[in-house]
Design a protein that fits this description.
Layout: H1 5-16, H2 54-66, H3 76-88, H4 94-101, H5 108-117, H6 120-133, H7 151-163, H8 168-181, H9 198-209, H10 226-246, H11 265-275, E1 278-284, H12 288-296, H13 298-317, H14 325-347, E2 365-371, E3 380-383, E4 391-395, H15 401-406, H16 419-427, H17 435-448, H18 469-481, H19 486-494, H20 508-513, E5 526-527, H21 530-541, H22 559-562, H23 596-600, H24 619-627, H25 629-646, H26 650-662, H27 668-683, H28 692-695, H29 703-717, H30 720-723, E6 724-725
Helix pairs in contact: 3-4, 3-5, 5-19, 6-7, 7-9, 8-9, 8-16, 10-11, 13-14, 17-18, 17-19, 21-25, 25-26, 25-29, 26-27, 27-29
């Protein structure tokens, strides 16, 4: 019988699918605790002069072995733009570019990195990376797409944690088990009324971190079956915990023993048992005294609502009528009653904090993990084929056996109501084979566009092999040595020659041996993510609203963009226009209706952890940037801002625009092209009606010149250099 390669492949898959075979397989490299490798000596390397730190030594060793030649260092203009986008997700201004390029200090690069790491925008940029992994969304998905009202508090927790350089081990512990590790409440010290101790504030913040488990997708109708709802929830919690913190596809072991990794079905349900006593709970963010004051103010809140109703009823009676002076006065009295009632609320309740929510509606809460009552605890069963209707024996809380052995830890956990604490401390004990490796791989990926392991959520046998295993192990151990500080690791990576390499040069030899640049003989050119593009458009136009934290914002959309939304009230546009130009991380994330601009630029599906975004090049991207009313409005602002700085001199205007948008000086050939474009656009007599904010600035030039400037800005927003980092 003749076997084709296709049938051989099918046979191999069938053999590998035999239950239990992975339990007898040898451990993957990722299941053993890494030893700290010794970096190669400079004098042993062909290009030892390019070694700035151990990272370069490990990279150069592989380049030598592969007979690859490293490229030269990128120029300063490229580096400053790379650093700004990498660390804060925004382009440098012309002034910031010139400041770095003309800084003669040998420490200029190090000083720039330190400066950017201390900006609040750093947390916003890097939180976006983590939120992809954490499957962040403001709604639950599926047909109902119910809201997750407090999801944004977790998003703000991540931003603040990163800005504070919270040690990663603490960051992990807080998200998994803050309530078990640091049990606390918001009770006040009688001697310090209305004041919370720093410790209580810290514990409250940690507790909000458990909102990580509030982000799961959920079918609305699952609430009809409590047993199934719990099973679906536990399944998400276990799968996501394993993917995010351990880089393992543990969900493969739910219906049968894992086919490739040493993870059994018993391990899977043991992990479910760890989370079984947990449930989502509303945590009041007011102290008991504050809540007392909030209830004390209930009559005043009621007065506001009744005044609103009275005004509404009055307007209904006078609809379509011309008001008499007496009726106008009555309407004004009703308006004043509302205003006065609202004003009385903060004036008489100094304990009510200034929160981004309506204190007339609710006391602020966060959704966190807590414990169910012990008598209500349901046992976790080993399920035949993972089917809820086929329970077998009861499974206790336990760590995956193979990993427990690798860390010299007991697998069984004695106290189920502190099992999440045991899990969190085990993951961060410094001996775990995966925790630091997985996070360092993510950090590397977010800097270089590709991880040392190209499958960031799968370090198992079916995941990609590491291109630089010694480097990954060294980074993992160095991370722990540096007290789990992400900012320290940023500094280390960015000061390497590998990070500072040029991305635009290549040799025929290198391209033949390593066309995908797996071994980093040059830097990778990367496309900006959707949110970074949104931020850049508004930043260059001078309209970006710099405001940290708060409820998600909802920008207005065109009629065409709203067409895909079944229920229009699911997109409640923010009342404050300045919110419409906030950073992309704050825009509402609906699972069933992604923000249209983000959708065309490959925003992730958030039902599951997203380890790496797709990068596509499709026609709707250019169509959005060319035709979107919001981008056209930003092009007006950009043209006006540059005009206000340069005056109506097309040559000077073009040079300033180029530097502002693309981050480099315009060449003579490019200047000639852009001047020709302006002249052509001006002669086309394009129709142009400036918005209110820019109308006065355009009064100094003809409408034809203004239209030419605006459309030139649109062209530059579509330039490849605008959306890519070299």
């Amino acid at each position: 019988m003749k076997f084709t390669s296709r049938y051989l492949g099918l046979l191999l898959i069938t053999l590998m699918a035999i239950p239990g075979n992975a339990q007898d397989a040898p451990f993957s490299w990722a299941f053993t605790t890494p030893d700290r490798p010794v970096p190669p000596a400079k004098d042993s390397l062909t290009h030892g002069h390019l070694v700035n730190n151990p990272i370069d030594a490990f990279i150069q060793k592989v380049l030598d072995r592969k007979k690859l030649t490293p490229v030269t260092r990128a120029d300063r203009t490229t580096l400053v733009r790379r650093a700004y986008f990498d660390l804060i997700g925004l382009p440098p201004t012309p002034e910031q570019i010139n400041q770095f390029v003309n800084n003669p200090s040998p420490k200029a690069w190090e000083e720039l990195i330190n400066e950017l790491l201390e900006k609040p925008e750093y947390g916003e940029r890097w939180a976006r990376h983590w939120l992809d992994v954490a499957r962040y969304a403001d709604s639950q998905g599926f047909e109902g797409d119910n809201s997750i009202p407090n999801a944004w508090r977790y998003r703000d927790y991540v931003i603040k944690s990163l800005n504070d350089d919270k040690p990663y081990d603490i960051f992990v512990q807080e998200q998994i088990a803050a309530d078990e590790i640091w049990p606390d409440n918001l009770d006040l010290d009688p001697k310090r009324v209305y004041l919370l101790s720093d410790q209580k504030k810290k514990h409250l913040e940690a507790r909000i971190g458990t909102g990580f488990y509030n982000l799961n997708a959920q079918v609305h109708e699952s609430a009809l079956d409590a047993h199934r709802l719990q099973y679906e929830t536990l399944t998400d919690w276990v799968d996501t915990t394993a993917s995010v913190f351990m880089g393992l596809t543990m969900g493969c072991a739910r219906c049968h023993d894992h086919k490739f990794d040493p993870l059994s079905q018993e391990d899977y349900f043991g992990m479910q048992a760890i989370f079984a006593p947990s449930e989502k709970q509303y945590l009041h963010l007011h102290t008991p005294m504050m809540r007392g004051d909030w209830h004390w103010l209930y009559p005043r809140r009621t007065a506001v609502e009744e005044a609103k109703r009275a005004l509404k009823a009055f307007r209904a009676t006078i609809a379509g009528l011309e008001l008499t002076e007496a009726e106008k006065a009555q309407e004004q009295t009703l308006k004043d009653a509302i205003v006065n009632s609202v004003m009385l609320l903060p004036d008489n309740a100094n304990s009510v904090p200034q929160e981004p929510f309506d204190i007339l509606m609710t006391s602020p809460t966060a959704t966190v993990l807590g414990h169910t009552h012990p008598k209500l605890l349901k046992p976790v069963h080993f399920l035949d084929r993972g089917e809820l209707e086929l329970p077998k024996h009861v499974v206790g809380a336990k760590l995956p056996k193979a990993l427990a052995i690798a860390t010299n830890s007991p697998s069984d956990l004695s106290n189920q109501f502190e099992s999440r604490k045991a899990l969190a401390l085990w993951l961060t004990n410094g001996k775990h084979p995966l925790t630091s490796r997985v996070m360092m791989n993510r950090l590397w990926q977010w800097h270089f566009g590709r991880g040392i392991v190209a499958t960031p959520n799968d370090f198992g046998l079916m995941g990609a092999a590491p291109t630089h295993p010694d480097l990954l192990d060294w980074l993992a151990s160095e991370f722990i040595t540096r007290d789990w500080s992400l900012k320290e690791m940023h500094r280390l990576i960015m000061k390497s020659n590998t990070y500072q390499a040029d991305s635009r040069t290549a040799t025929d030899n290198n391209l033949a041996i390593d066309p995908e640049n797996k071994y980093l003989w040059r830097m990778n050119r990367r496309r900006l993510e959707a949110e970074a593009l949104w931020d850049s458009v508004h930043f260059t136009a001078g309209t970006l609203t710099n405001k940290l934290y708060g409820r998600p914002v909802v920008p207005s959309l065109s009629t065409d963009e709203m067409a895909a939304l079944r229920e229009k009230w699911h997109w409640p546009v923010s009342g404050d226009p300045s919110d419409h130009t906030r950073r992309g991380i704050y825009i509402l994330v609906k699972r069933n209706f992604r923000f249209p601009m983000f959708e065309v630029y490959d925003a992730p599906l958030t039902e599951l952890s997203c380890p790496q975004r797709d990068v596509t090049t499709v026609a709707p991207q250019a169509l959005w940037t060319l035709n979107s009313p919001s981008v056209y409005k930003q092009a007006q602002h950009l043209a006006a801002v540059v005009l206000a700085k340069t005056g109506d001199n097309p040559e000077v205007w073009s040079a300033e625009l180029w530097l502002r948008v693309l981050g480099r000086q315009i060449s003579k050939a490019e200047l000639a092209e852009i001047l020709t474009l302006i002249k052509t656009l001006e002669s086309d007599a394009l129709k142009f009606q400036p918005d209110k904010e820019t109308a006065d600035l355009f009064k100094t030039i003809t409408p034809a010149r203004a239209a030419a400037y605006v459309h030139t800005c649109l062209a530059l927003f579509n330039h490849n250099e605008f959306s890519f980092i070299d």
